[in-house]
Amino acid sequence: MLAYLVRRLLYALPILIGVNVITFALFFIVNTPDDMARMQLGVKRVTPEAIDKWKAQRGYDKPLFINAAASGSAVFTDTIFFSKSARMFAGDFGRAEDGRDIAREISSRMGPSLAIALPTFILGLLVTVSFALMLTFFRASYLDFWGVVLCVALMSISGLFYIIGGQFLISKMWKLVPISGYGGGLDAWKFVILPVLIGVISGIGSSTRWYRTIFLEEISRDYVRTARAKGLSELAVLFRHVLRNAMIPILTGVVVVIPLLFMGSLLTESFFGIPGLGSYTIDAINAQDFAVVRAMVFIGSVLYILGLILTDLSYTFVDPRIRFN
Q: Which CATH number is associated with domain 102-288?
């Protein structure tokens, strides 16, 4: 197990380096530091002197990858790539264009993002798996048919409709919770409950259909017929056999959500005024703050790779036949 974990971590390092280099190329080759200076300074204040001063203040006056004028290790370290991208491997994300420390902003905004993402993830998983098991139990019946119709209808509605509709109905009409904003401490639940509810409802359709397909595939296998022949009830077959053997594809689907637990939901946080990582990313895109966007892309890549490793390791707990050497 330890050898497998070390091997996967070593495999992940070239992937992260490749993502880092590609992200850097997209930001600094397609969009040069001169272009960034013009966007930040505005049309009226753009002069060659102002551009040079802006680049010097932010460290963009250096070569991109190789500093031919330097000597020794400074050939590679005294570059924009090393100062702006390579240092992210050590957790140094630098500063945003407004001067604020990006790492400090990320740590302060991670709490509100997790306050929404974790309940949405846990409740959504429980609701969709339970709903899918119910449809599988009543398969080929009217309940199954109308359940699938409901799932398709929920899938066909844009997530933006749930957000706007929920704000209008629950917050503006019924005045049960605030329409937007965020408060710390015990008052946070008033601002979190509506985004969590909307997040769970908007994900029921696609997730339930996915889990239902997995359960229906498992329920037609030979081991299920053997379990029924032994006299087990249909509920026992579903929970003791079908659900357990369907855990591997379920875990595989769950890994996609792991980065979102930390990165936050872009639309939800923006519309509800939640000061999380999702709204932080949207604000950085609107302000063309490429330092923040680069940092968020890098963190998302790291979290996704860690999620893949954790998913592989969790396979050993749900299926004893899987062993990593």
A: 1.10.3720.10
